[in-house]
Design goal:
Elements (H helix, E strand, L loop, with lengths): L12 H14 L4 H15 L5 H13 L4 H44 L3 H36 L1 H20 L4 H33 L1
Helix pairs in contact: 1-2, 1-4, 2-5, 3-4, 5-6, 6-7
Length: 209
């Protein structure tokens, strides 16, 4: 995304609240659908965040304890509306969804055994998996783009870390936090050395010119 926040006017507090409330009312299917809506709203449709900023915010939320989507709302709200932005983002995201959830929970016990309801739920589950797959692609796309720009070696290591983390989580019961910490350490070692090598090569090229 080429547009930056400096090139676009910030949303008003009311507009920010309305956007988060709209996301909260559409967040059916779990966290993956909410994450997709947040990305589509603030990255694709408005350009208030770049893909790199959104990915960085989400990575910070993964490293912090608590509910990741709330952390994401706080970070985006702070960037776009300062302290008031944090408040309206939190209220906008949580209030509509909380009301809808309470209403559904109150009525679900009376309809949960209805065959039509069971069929609906069986359709929602694969749809949610599809949304998660799309979200994963959208997060991986800027990473691959950056890797290509930095060279084949950097891209190869990035893809290797993606595959290794996925394999560890699939075949073991290790904590996600430990996986992230391990990936961070590996990335610090590998990419620091790659950056050092690129700096040396660029220095040699400048000297030869």
């Amino acid at each position: 995304m080429e547009n930056s926040l400096e090139q676009k006017p910030r949303p008003t507090i009311w507009q920010l609240f309305r956007l988060w409330a709209t996301i909260g009312m559409q967040s059916f299917g779990g966290g993956s659908s909410t994450l997709l809506l947040v990305r589509r709203t603030f990255v694709e449709n408005s350009g208030w965040l770049t893909e790199e900023e959104f990915g960085r915010y989400w990575n910070l939320c993964q490293l912090a304890p608590g509910i990741n989507l709330i952390g994401l709302a706080i970070l985006i709200g702070k960037k776009l509306g300062s302290r008031r932005g944090i408040i309206v983002s939190m209220v906008g995201m949580l209030l509509p969804s909380s009301v809808i959830t309470c209403l559904l929970a109150a009525g679900f016990s009376s309809v949960q055994t209805v065959p039509a309801v069971q069929s609906i739920l069986k359709g929602v589950i694969p749809a949610t998996a599809g949304i998660m797959f799309l979200t994963a692609i959208q997060f991986g796309r800027p990473l691959i783009k950056q890797g290509k720009a930095e060279g084949k070696l950097s891209l190869s290591f990035s893809l290797l870390i993606i595959g290794a983390c996925a394999a560890v989580l699939v075949f073991s019961q290790i904590s996600v936090l430990l996986v992230l910490a391990g990936a961070a350490l590996v990335g610090a070692v590998i990419f620091t050395r790659l950056q050092g090598q690129r700096a040396i090569e660029e220095g040699k090229q400048s000297e030869s010119v």
